[in-house]
Design brief:
Length: 511
């Protein structure tokens, strides 16, 4: 935390500057905004990459403001409604200068299923209050939360969601703890997700996605990047481990977006933490018995990922294919021990007597079993490491897929956005969690199921704004669901009905 305090001070030094800035990012969790942004990207209104969340408001504003009239004129009724909602969100963000308070109250049942892109409560009961301040190039948000019976990290008081940020040129420099979602998927993303609490980190990101000016690189289209350097705390086998992550995304064609990501656990108590160790990480020279690396000087545990989303590869759509693949290891200077996911997404309009709006639906399959296509897969590989034995996890949850390692998840879902800015989200899911897990060794630190479990379930959630006269009172989210689980070791099974209720009032956050 001392590192973050110093960084806050350095940023405050630069408070006095001229450009206008509201909240820098649109955070992950808002299904309405993601649905609208992706719909506009597929229609050609938004040309920048949209699979890295949080996504900057400056990028969305630049694309929406510069969209050709010919593209706007071709939009259908629901696409125009999406454009209107995004424009309203951009304008609200621009108008949010000065101090803005925020609050949230949430409750849920004790047994709750795996977190997805959707913003749902992490704890059984939580009260959050805070405020944000915007002025010039500087933005800050302070949020304090009280958790009743916190699990699994026993921290009753938290500062999740707090940050301080400043725009320097076309870059955002920040320090804080905010959620991230890297990849095109809706249910599980494999390299960096919101399954765990947000990691306190320094970050450097591109503010507006632009093309390279040189003809040698302009072919990759609009591109952006995100670099984070986080601190994973002392509740680990290797205390004070650092989390280093980098992602670059680009759109060489309107229909194709590609993402490249790397993440590493490094440094920490008793581990190399100097410039040489960092250079070895960059060169990918961090495998024991390679290049003089020994268990004593092994600098890191790395993951590398590539993902893509291709809209309507055959025909006019509207549909898209997406995939993400993660290499858990390296062999002979090449990525190895791959695991991955794939999905198909489609969207359209729904007009009935009772409901009217646009929808996005998906079918997604994920395997976090390394080399899952082999007759002898590499179990206990994904998200685990011999030196960093807590693995690729933070506060008891996976930093990657919410299902954690050695798991298979198949899901089908649909998000429906009504014309009056209400949303419905339905999800059906089957999973085989921690396959072959027996609760021993690396299985014992599995964040979802130390022993192998099979589960299937369904969930329905709804979000709507509330008001009293001219007073805007935020929005309410409600979710209900059912899940059946079977323990493959003990033979026991369990049926759970679960639900959550959440009220959020936040002029600049998820809205």
């Amino acid at each position: 935390m001392a590192y973050l305090n110093r960084f806050y001070f350095l940023l405050i030094v630069f408070l006095f500057s001229s450009a206008s800035l509201a909240d820098p990012w649109a955070p992950p969790g808002d299904l309405i905004l993601r649905h609208d942004v992706q719909m506009l990207a597929d229609a050609g209104v938004i040309r920048s990459p949209v699979t890295t969340w949080p996504i900057t408001w400056a990028t969305l504003n630049a694309d929406v403001a510069s969209a050709p009239n010919g593209v706007i004129e071709k939009l259908g009724q629901q696409q125009r409604a999406a454009l209107s909602r995004v424009r309203a969100r951009i304008q609200r963000n621009k108008d949010s200068n000065g101090f803005q308070p925020n609050a949230e109250v949430s409750v849920r049942t004790d047994d709750f299923w795996l977190r997805t892109f959707e913003d749902t409560p992490r704890e059984e009961s939580e009260l959050r209050v805070g405020g944000s301040w915007m002025g010039g190039r500087f933005a800050a948000r302070v949020q304090g939360s009280y958790i009743d019976q916190p699990d699994p990290d026993d921290q009753e008081w938290r500062m999740d969601g707090s940050y301080i940020a400043m725009v320097i040129g076309n870059h955002i420099v920040s320090a804080g703890a905010i959620d991230r979602w890297w990849g095109p998927s809706w249910d599980n993303t494999l390299i960096y997700s919101n399954a765990a609490r947000p990691v306190g980190a320094f970050a450097l990101e591109r503010n507006v996605a632009k093309e390279f000016e040189t003809k040698w690189l302009s072919w990759i289209g609009p591109w952006t990047y995100s670099l984070t350097w986080g601190f994973l705390g002392d509740d680990r086998v290797v205390e004070n481990t650092r989390h280093l992550a980098f992602r670059a995304t680009f759109r060489p064609f309107q229909s194709l977006e590609i993402g490249l990501s790397r993440a590493a656990l490094w440094c920490g108590s008793g581990r190399p933490c100097d410039a040489d160790a960092l250079w070895d990480i960059i060169k990918v020279e961090d495998n024991t018995d390679e290049g003089g690396v020994t268990p004593d000087n092994d600098p890191s545990n790395q993951l590398a990922a590539v993902d893509a989303r291709w809209a309507s590869p055959i025909g006019d759509g509207p549909w898209a294919l997406y995939t993400q693949w993660v290499a858990n290891d390296e062999s002979n200077n090449l990525p190895s021990q791959w695991f991955g996911q794939g999905g198909v997404e489609w969207w359209g309009e729904l007009q009935t007597r009772w409901i009217s709006g646009s929808y996005t639906a998906h079918l997604e399959a994920t395997s976090t079993i390394a080399e899952f296509w082999e007759s002898a897969p590499a179990y206990d590989g994904a998200y685990n490491h011999g030196t960093y034995r807590t693995g690729y996890r933070y506060t008891g949850r996976s930093l990657g897929a919410a299902a954690d390692g050695d798991s298979i998840v198949v899901s089908a879902g649909m998000a429906l956005v009504e014309s009056d800015d209400r949303s419905w989200n339905a999800l059906v899911r089957w999973s085989n969690l921690n396959r072959k897990g027996d609760g021993l060794g690396p299985d014992a630190v599995h964040s979802v199921a130390p022993e192998e479990e099979k589960a299937w379930g369904l969930q329905l959630s709804h979000r709507r704004g509330i008001s009293y006269g001219e007073w805007d009172l935020g929005y309410v989210s409600l979710g209900v669901g059912y899940q059946h689980t079977e323990n493959e070791i003990t033979g026991g099974n369990e049926d759970d009905f679960h639900g959550f209720l959440q009220w959020t009032w936040d002029p600049q956050g998820v809205w």
